[in-house]
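## retry 2 of 3
previous attempt timed out at serialization; input unchanged, resubmitting
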Amino acid sequence: MKATKLSLTLLPVALVGGLAAYVAFHPGVAYAEPRLAAGSPAPFTQAATYTIDPLHTSISFEITHLGLAQVHGRFNKFSGKIREDAKQLGNSGVEFTIQVDSVDTAIPARDAHLRNADFFDVAKYPEITFKSTKIAKVRNGYVATGDLTMHGKTKSIRIPFKHYGPHTLKGMGDQPTRIGIVAEPITIKRSDFGLGSTKPLPDGTVGVSDEVLVRLSLEATLDK
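## retry succeeded, writing output
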């Protein structure tokens, strides 16, 4: 899959960490999944380009706090494109961009800290991007391999995902054709991107884990 603008995050992105997260995280907005996710995955069926629908898309993350519990957050502002070509998979791709200042852990003081130079340094690095370099078919799904750029560093990651649709709602006016993408949870490391401290507390306890679990679920509408 050639690149579109995903930063699908897939992604991710949840690189919240260090000593800033001593309070439990929880998502500020409900997690969204494509309406067809409960159905059977479907292969690409046509050559088409789709635009991410932010109303039905979620980029969320989980991180371990003090080795005791999973805490949660998300990003609320993002945009992206998906290009799929059933006959020539090499023409397919995804690009995604996340606005880092939209990080949301439901605690404003902590969100402000995550935006400063201790962590994401939003003033210097305002975006997280993902740009695919390859899309491969696997069993009943696909794998997007691409470059995740965050905090000034770029790493190649793999995002396994299932594809649903296309689907056009009937009897509801001029509704665009839609697809759904649900990625398997992926793990990234804060240390790979220089986000926050990974040093243990004075008593040896790990404040927040280096590993961050990222979840991506989206709908996209067919471009006219």
